[in-house]
Amino acid sequence: MFLRTNPMRIKAMRKLLWAAPVFWVxxxxxxxxxxxxxxxxxxxxxxxxxTSQVVWLAVIFAVFYVVLARGALPRVAEVLAxxxxxxxxxxxxxxAAKAEADKAVAEVEVAIRRAHAEAQARxxxxxxxxxxxxEAEIRALxxxxxxxxxxxxxxIAAARRAxxxxxxxxxxxxxxxxxxxxxxxxPVRPALEQAVVSALAKRET
Length: 205
Description:
single chain; disordered N terminus; 4 helices
């Protein structure tokens, strides 16, 4: 990618590579430019062996550069571009997943709040229904108790009237017997009954 997207740098590097032998020859350490100095034998360009070594070094370097520039480096650039694309896709997928997760969390929170509100409404409704049912049962119980109390009072009144009637008859018989024993006479029964009833009525008041 670097080599393909930067052609000016490639040209500059090529010029530098091809100019390297020239700089080497023209350097101050070159025996060709030295005046009367023997110089180092490794850089004695007057020697054909040294010149051939420099030329072959430049050729090998140029071949190595061409192989890298047209073979390995483009492949490396493609691999880097592919990895960058994969990383970008993964990041986009992660962002999309995060957005979906945030959306799901928001929906869950809304559902929880809605369920909580519905639960509170149902609880309030159930409490109101239970309260109304309890009040209805209490009213029914009070009505039943009042009816039973009224019936009991009526039964008590009837029993009392029966008891009073029986007591009146007994009192009349006892009074009649007592008057007969004390006076030896038989009293008039209607007058005796009237006297007993008047006496019982006074006792009740």
